[in-house]
Structure formats: C-alpha cells, structure tokens
Amino acid sequence: MLSLPPLPPEHIRTSFLLFTRRNRYNPVVFPPDKPELLLRSEFNSTAWTRILIHGYLDGSYSSDWLF
C-alpha cells in the first residue's frame, strides 16, 4: 500500500475561526502559525469552550450544521 505524505501547510491553508457571543457572525480568523492573534482576541479562557471539527472535505462556511 502506498502512503502519500500530507500536502504542505501552504497548500492546505488551515485556519481557525473563533466565534464568541460578541462576534457570532464575523469570526476572528487566524492561521496556526499566528497564535498571538488569539491572545489579542476576545477569547476568554475561563469560559466554557466548545471546539468543533468539521470533516476533511467540508469547509467552515459550507457546513450548515455549524450554524
């Protein structure tokens, strides 16, 4: 069985979207290599946090179940 290596991050363009009660419809978007953007956001580390991970082929804006 042939196993291909993953594509480079520049090709995949992973990003994280932070939705809060104050920005339900306009998330803070940040790439994995810029964690300082999360630190400057309204993220409250003491609040109850939910992390949603969509499917590999889904996009954050194409998945109706997220909204």
From TrEMBL:
Protein name: Uncharacterized protein
InterPro entries xref list: AB_hydrolase_fold
